[in-house]
Write a structure and sequence with these properties.
alpha+beta; two-stranded antiparallel sheet; 15 helices
Length: about 375
């Protein structure tokens, strides 16, 4: 009987091997949840990123109850919050069991525009005012941390994808052109790449950010960070792609395309660069965490996305003091999500490297 695995293509074998990697599939699911939550943040979050109530400064996470005082199973609810001060004049939050706020789903709340286009005011869950549900607690200004995490993920996660799309497009074209033409074109392009690679990335990042005017609004700051990160991230890829293209340009299919009169740009884009796709995919997956960390570092030191707009970096700035961490440890959650995102991309990148390695794929085909 014929074994179906013998008829699988290299891509099919790689896909099958990736699906068998349990840790990589778990990380893929984590990234799916994070990006899905960021995309639908307006709907998923019960409040907008700037909805604040100073009475709940560093408010503790809300406890959702499904059993009442008599031990009966009831609709989910939260108790009201009573605030008093201890002998050190610190806020102490306790449950006011006299007041209940039922947790409602698909309820009305803060107005928003989904993706900046479709108006709406429905949220996945919430409670009626004056109640306030904060499942992950609140920050120093009484803003719901879960809501700001969802909106902040939209910035922090998208920056990695957009920067990779721009920088790797530049790196592929520059590296492909240098490897295909060789000669003085190769020399000039590679010297430019080396100039970018000589300067430490973070210091170059700070220098370029200092040039950006300080009166930019949040969208302009976001776009400037994307441009800056893309501007410093393409040189390494270009050098690797150049080395691969130096050997690919002598292949028979490239020589045949030249004889047929195909343009140089078409040969590079259609015949040479597709043969570098396996390396490019792996490199992209391993580069995205670097861009996310760079944006977080800029926002953490006050040079990135500015308050009240949310990103995981500027949210983590509140955790710079040991006192805040001691009495409100939930403000470290942005750091946990940055860690999860970076580790997930790295695990998936390592799994893809194992799956797309031609030697391992060939061994898998013989074993099948």
């Amino acid at each position: 009987m014929n074994n179906p695995a013998r008829h699988l293509s290299e891509l099919g074998l790689a896909r099958r091997k990736f699906r068998r990697d349990f840790l990589a599939m778990v990380c893929l699911g984590i990234l799916g949840l994070l990006y899905g939550g960021a995309l639908f943040a307006d709907f998923v979050a019960p409040y907008s990123y700037q909805n604040e109530d100073r009475n709940y400064a560093y408010g503790r996470p809300s406890r959702i109850h499904i059993v009442d005082d008599q031990g009966r199973l009831v609709r989910p609810f939260i108790y009201g919050t009573a605030i008093h001060f201890d002998e050190y004049h610190r806020r102490v939050y306790t449950d006011d069991t006299r007041v209940r706020y039922p947790v409602r789903f698909f309820c009305r709340g803060d107005a928003y525009r989904f993706l900046g286009l479709v108006p709406g005011d429905r949220h996945l869950f919430g409670v009626e005012a004056p109640g306030r549900i904060m499942i992950w607690g609140a920050d120093s200004r009484g803003r719901d941390l879960f809501s700001r995490m969802a909106h902040g993920g939209r910035v922090s996660l998208s920056i990695g994808l957009v920067c990779v799309l721009i920088s790797y497009s530049i790196g592929l074209l520059v590296g492909g052109g240098a490897g295909y033409y060789g000669g003085w074109v190769d020399d000039v392009l590679m010297r430019i790449c080396e100039m970018f690679m000589m300067v430490p990335g973070f210091y170059l990042l700070l220098a370029l950010r200092a040039v950006v005017p300080g009166d930019f609004n949040s969208l302009q700051v976001y776009l400037s960070i994307v441009v800056i990160l893309s501007f410093i991230g393409w040189a390494g890829l270009a050098r690797v792609i150049r080395g691969m293209c130096l050997s690919l340009r002598e292949r028979e299919f490239v020589l045949a395309a030249r004889v047929m009169g195909v343009s140089d740009l078409r040969i590079i884009v259609r015949h040479i660069l597709p043969h570098t796709v396996s390396y490019s995919i792996i490199s992209v997956m391993l580069a995205i965490p670097g861009y996310i960390l760079a944006e977080s570092a800029l926002s953490l030191i006050g040079l990135g996305i500015q308050d009240p707009y949310a990103s995981w970096g500027n949210m983590l700035a509140e955790a710079m003091g040991i006192i805040q961490i001691q009495f409100a440890p939930w403000i470290l959650l942005p750091g946990l999500f940055i860690f999860l995102t970076v580790m997930s991309f790295n695990v998936i990148g390592d799994a893809l490297r194992d799956c797309l390695d031609p030697r391992l794929v060939s061994e898998g085909r013989r074993a099948g």
